[in-house]
Amino acid sequence: MKNKYRLLPFEKLESDLMKDKGFVKEYAKLRPQLQIARQMIEARIKKKITQAELAKKANTGQAVISRLEGMNAKPSISLLSRIATALDTEIKI
């Protein structure tokens, strides 16, 4: 059975959604959180470590990392610093 759904690249979806003024306004509010989540995920994947491994290195729980990556938490500067250190990187906002 062939999958009837086609995945849409994020960049295309983002481009299409940016044509909607309401979306642009809400997107602007979430942009810092999105940037942090994206940087964390990219750095973690580049290091080839799991959320649990990152959590252990950053002295936090896996659920915390999951919430941050899912944009369901507002991290402290201290936590972001520990995560950046654990990933040997900088997180830019």
TrEMBL record:
GO terms for molecular function: DNA binding. Signal peptide: none annotated. Gene3D superfamilies: lambda repressor-like DNA-binding domains (1.10.260.40). SMART domains: HTH_XRE (SM00530). InterPro entries: Cro/C1-type_HTH, Lambda_DNA-bd_dom_sf. PROSITE patterns: HTH_CROC1. Residues 40-91 form the HTH cro/C1-type domain. CDD domains: HTH_XRE. SUPFAM superfamilies: lambda repressor-like DNA-binding domains. This is Transcriptional regulator. It comes from Candidatus Roizmanbacteria bacterium CG_4_10_14_0_2_um_filter_36_35. The lineage of its organism: Bacteria, Candidatus Roizmaniibacteriota.
